[in-house]
Amino acid sequence: xxxxxxxxxYNDADMARLLEQWEKDDDIEEGDLPEHKRPPAPIDFSxxxxxxxxxxxxLTKKGKTLMMFVxxxxxxxxxxxxxxxxLWQGGLFNANYDVQRFIVGSNRAIFMLRDGGYAWEIKDxxxxxxxxxxxxxxxxxxxxxxxxxxxxxxxxTKPEKAKKKKDAEKKSNxxxxxxxxxxxxxxx
Length: 188
Known about the structure:
Structural class: alpha+beta
Number of strands: 6
GO cellular component, one term: endoplasmic reticulum
Distance between the termini: 64 Å
Main location: endoplasmic reticulum
CATH superfamily of the domain at 69-139: ACT domain
GO molecular function, one term: low-density lipoprotein particle receptor binding
GO biological process, one term: protein folding
Keywords: Chaperone, Endoplasmic reticulum, Signal, Wnt signaling pathway
């Protein structure tokens, strides 16, 4: 049995054990758990349209935090970007979308959503804004009304991801070719 200690003599480890004992019997509701410890929401496969891959993403991101990058067209200062994205955030707030906004560059902002199921509706709102150059959501770049004509190709995958995949394939092929144990086995 553990010795009885005076509370004034407790160190950090003793306090941590005491906290664990208190929390062991607590019933924590699912909504109070951190997002990574919550069970995933059940997916209703009858609502999935096989012709639209976005419908699958909408259902899998429902209830999860999601971030999208938004680029403001032209050459705005950071203050202009702040003002423009603030107007967009206000419009989304008036439409009952819970969106937080973070400026990450002179023409770039992150929109963070508490419920990723609404991300594609918000993306549609943003790309219809005059000063929106593009919206990046789940690795897809969607050009906005303010995009240059040469950038207005239909939604494209980020070129960085495709390049990383090619580099990874080259490395794996070179590793297979340089594997000495394989060469010795073939010679035997």
